[in-house]
Amino acid sequence: xxxxxxYRFSVTRDDEVAISTSPDHVPWSLRPAASGDxxxxxxxxxxxxxxxxxxxxxxxxxxxxxxxxxxxxxxxxDILRTRYLLRFKNAPDRELHTPMFSARFGxxxxxxxxxxxxxxxxxxxxxxxEEDEDRPELIxxxxxxxxxxxxxx
Length: 153
What we know:
Layout: E1 5-11, E2 17-20, E3 28-32, E4 38-42, E5 47-55, E6 61-66, E7 69-76, E8 83-88, E9 91-97, E10 104-109, E11 112-121, E12 124-129, H1 136-151
């Protein structure tokens, strides 16, 4: 059993989401691309996957791609944008709940909480992933959704 891992997601002045595991270690970043996609970059600046928006209204819908292969989808479950279904090719579905007027969110698999999210400031979130939940696809999906919520997309 692996210990839970904490990440910090912070929106920078360049509209990039810096994803850190400690103040001086940023293993991931989610950066907007000229194509309109958001790219998940590793420490070396290499693109690992892309998050592409397919639909904005009435409910958000994104697709996660790696070398044009679909890894998963993100679907808004309600028009208020408070619940999202995260479907991954090689992992169980997850549901993200972002209640209105709350600074605490959760990622669930059935009735089990798999990640806890706390909004620390307007553009900074702390995320505690349960054992082996910190996969790049889930990190990219959460970073994109939290950025969209913050940016009112």
